[in-house]
Amino acid sequence: MMNKNIAEQLKALSKISKAIVSDFYLDDILRLVVTVTAEVLGSNICSLMLIDEKNNELLVRATQSISEEYNKKPALKIGEGIAGKAVKENRPIAVVDVVKEKEYKHKDIAKREGLSSLLCVPLAVKGRVIGVINCYTAKPHNFSSEEMEMLTTIDNQAAVAIENTELIVKSKVIQEELETRKRIERAKGILMQDENLSEEQAYLKIRKYSMDNRKTMREVAEAIILAADMKHLTRAR
User: Fold this and answer.
1) Does 132 have pLDDT greater than 90?
2) CA torsion 223→228→231→237, rounded to 10°?
3) I need a surface site. Which of 21, 130, 185, 221 has the fewest CB within 10 A?
4) DSSP output for the chain
5) Which residue has the higher pLDDT, 39 or 196?
């Protein structure tokens, strides 16, 4: 692994910084992070794992590796393996030879892929760990403090980009839910007035039609609203 000059480091950070304010999808940002990290650190394989909070596991979400076996390796529990330990303790961990490291999982894959040294650096936002970046070399390598610091800096930028993207997605989901509720409420009101139904009867009618016709309740509500608008338009003429 070769040291890169400051200009290249700044260029890498600039790419990730731009992603923070972009409209990229999360998967695009994750691929960008591993690609940039591999370029800057001269890494043989670079992967990014994010925490699945539901199962308390680390899942590989992005890698520039073309190895199908590596890309499909099983998830790690928090605290399991080197990456899991780095996440649990929220600190970088370096290993010179993963094959000889007793805590390293999947030694068989490492042997077949020719992986030697490993540097794991947690991804954290405001003290909350959300994942980890793993950088491998093909030959034994003692990671310097400068390399650890460089990857930590990249990680900090990446974590902000990831959190920003997830917040945008959550915001859009919440907005969609609010819009759906508004449409269903309006559709209920139309049915209550036109068919003299109670609020519960109107809701059940929308839900039944939704289930019988394999349509979402929002689609049914929009159809009811459209029909009512067309009726009013016809009367206005």
Assistant:
1) yes
2) -120
3) 21
4) -----HHHHHHHHHHHHHHHTS---HHHHHHHHHHHHHHHHT-SEEEEEEEETTTTEEEEEEE----HHHHTPPPEETTSHHHHHHHHHTS-EEES-GGG-TT-S-HHHHHHHT---EEEEEEEETTEEEEEEEEE-SS-----HHHHHHHHHHHHHHHHHHHHHHHHHHHHHHHHHHHHHHHHHHHHHHHHHHS---HHHHHHHHHHHHHHTT--HHHHHHHHHHHHHHHHHHHH-
5) 196
Percent of the chain at pLDDT > 90 equals 30
User: Does the pLDDT at position 13 exceed 90?
Assistant: no
pLDDT for 93: 94
How far CA 108 is from CA of 69, 73, 156, in Å, comes to 10, 11, 31
Separation CA 83–CA 50 (nearest Å): 11
Gyration radius from the chain CA atoms = 26
Quick check: 152 and 90 in contact, CB under 8 A?
no
CA distance 136 to 119: 7
Residue 16 has φ and ψ, to the nearest 5°, of: -70, -35
